[in-house]
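Customer escalation, tier 2.

The customer says the design service returned an amino acid string that "doesn't look like it belongs to this structure." They asked us to rerun it and document both sides in this ticket. The original C-alpha cells are below, unchanged.
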C-alpha cells in the first residue's frame, strides 16, 4: 500500500497550518512554496480538506485557509481519507465495495485485522503530535 501524492501534500499542508498561530489565515501559495508543492494541485487538495471539515476556507482580501478544529483533534487518517476516500488494503475490505466471499475467504479475516491495526495507528497520529515531534527535532 502506498499513499498518493495528494495524501502526502494534504498532510504536509495541514501540518504547515498546525505550526501557525491558531487564528492565522494562510494563503495556499504560501503553503505551496514552503512545502515545495504545486500551488494549483494543493488548492484542489485543500478543497477536499475543507469539504471534510478539516480546514476552513476564508474568502476575500484576507482569504486563505486555517485549521477548522484544533490540531489535537485532526488525525492523519482523517486527512488521508478526506483526500483519497476510505482506506482499504483490498477491495473486499472497502466499505464502498464489499465482497460476497468474505464469510468464507481465508484471506478476509487476517487482512481485516491488519487493516484495523493500520487504521487505529493512523487515528492515533494527530497534527499536534506531528508538529511537536518536528519542533523537537529542530
Amino acid at each position: 500500500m502506498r499513499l498518493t501524492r495528494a495524501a502526502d501534500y494534504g498532510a504536509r499542508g495541514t501540518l504547515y497550518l498546525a505550526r501557525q498561530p491558531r487564528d492565522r489565515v494562510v494563503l495556499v501559495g504560501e503553503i505551496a512554496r514552503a512545502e515545495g508543492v504545486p500551488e494549483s494541485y494543493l488548492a484542489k487538495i485543500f478543497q477536499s480538506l475543507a469539504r471534510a471539515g478539516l480546514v476552513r476556507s476564508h474568502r476575500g482580501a484576507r482569504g486563505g485557509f486555517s485549521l477548522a478544529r484544533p490540531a489535537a483533534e485532526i488525525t492523519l487518517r482523517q486527512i488521508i481519507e478526506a483526500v483519497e476516500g476510505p482506506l482499504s488494503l483490498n477491495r473486499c475490505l472497502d466499505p464502498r465495495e464489499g465482497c460476497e466471499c468474505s464469510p468464507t475467504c481465508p484471506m478476509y479475516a487476517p487482512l481485516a485485522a491488519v487493516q484495523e491495526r493500520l487504521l487505529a495507528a493512523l487515528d492515533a497520529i494527530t497534527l499536534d503530535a506531528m508538529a511537536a515531534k518536528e519542533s523537537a527535532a529542530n
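Tier 2 assessment: The sequence is consistent with the input. The mean pLDDT is 91. The longest helix spans residues 108-123. Sent an explanation to the customer and offered a walkthrough call.
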